[in-house]
């Protein structure tokens, strides 16, 4: 038995040594940067019509998530109400100022008329950061044709129509 065990050990060692010597010929490299993560729009899980709301990822990129509402007006309410607890726990945020839910419910989205959706907001819009405006615009036009723009009207002014720019800054 000991001769058989010794022969088996020798054969196993020879096979392992052969594998080590053969190698695959691929040299090791460091981490290769391949760009930013993909941006995706996520539809409703059950296949029903669901409008989208655009929140911010931790690296300040827009990402669309189902709003739970069938129309843009509901999605805008969700946007102004901010990410839910589960969304915040996963790192989603917003560039918008905090808005009381009662005020958020007064948001009105109409259109598109021609190629413009009109969005009446219960906040000042002139000083909104670019990311905040992009969140509103993309949420407002998410269900419209790709060439449709949104005009934001706030308590202080109306801005020129602008397209959804969901890509990186």
Describe the structure.
The chain has helices spanning 2-22, 72-81, 85-89, 101-104, 130-141, and strands spanning 52-56, 62-66, 108-113, 116-120, 149-153. The protein is 31% helix and 15% strand. Helix 5 (130-141) links the parallel strand 4 and strand 5. Helix 2 (72-81) runs antiparallel to helix 5. The chain has 5 helices and 5 strands, in the order H-E-E-H-H-H-E-E-H-E. It is α+β, with helices and mostly antiparallel strands. The relative contact order is 0.14. It starts with a helix and ends in a 16-residue tail after the last strand. It has a 3-stranded mixed beta sheet, with helices on one face.
Task: Lay out the secondary structure.
Layout: H1 2-22, E1 52-56, E2 62-66, H2 72-81, H3 85-89, H4 101-104, E3 108-113, E4 116-120, H5 130-141, E5 149-153
Parallel strand pairs: 4-5
Antiparallel strand pairs: 1-2, 3-4
- Main sheet makeup: 3 strands, mixed
Number of helices: 5
Order of adjacent strands in the largest pleated sheet: 3-4-5
Order of helices and strands: HEEHHHEEHE
Give the terminus-to-terminus CA distance: 72 Å
Rounded Rg: 27 Å
Instruction: Tell how many strands the DSSP assignment holds.
Output: 5
Mean pLDDT: 81
Helix content: 25-40%
Write down the overall geometry: elongated
* Structural class estimated from helices and strands: alpha+beta
């Amino acid at each position: 038995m000991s001769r058989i065990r010794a022969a088996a050990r020798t054969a196993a060692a020879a096979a392992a040594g052969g594998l080590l010597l053969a190698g695959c010929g691929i040299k090791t490299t460091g981490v290769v940067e391949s760009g930013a993560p993909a941006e995706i729009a996520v539809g409703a899980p059950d296949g029903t019509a669901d409008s989208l709301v655009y929140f911010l990822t931790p690296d300040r990129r827009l990402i669309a998530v189902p709003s739970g509402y069938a129309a843009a007006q509901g999605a805008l309410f969700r946007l102004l109400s901010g990410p839910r607890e589960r969304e915040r726990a996963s790192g989603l945020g917003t560039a918008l100022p905090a808005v009381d839910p009662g005020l958020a419910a007064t948001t009105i989205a109409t259109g598109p008329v021609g190629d413009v959706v009109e969005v009446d907001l219960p906040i000042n819009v002139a000083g909104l950061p670019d990311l905040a405006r992009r969140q509103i615009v993309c949420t407002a036009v998410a269900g419209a044709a790709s060439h449709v723009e949104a005009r934001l009207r706030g308590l202080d002014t109306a801005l020129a129509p602008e397209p959804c720019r969901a890509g990186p800054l």
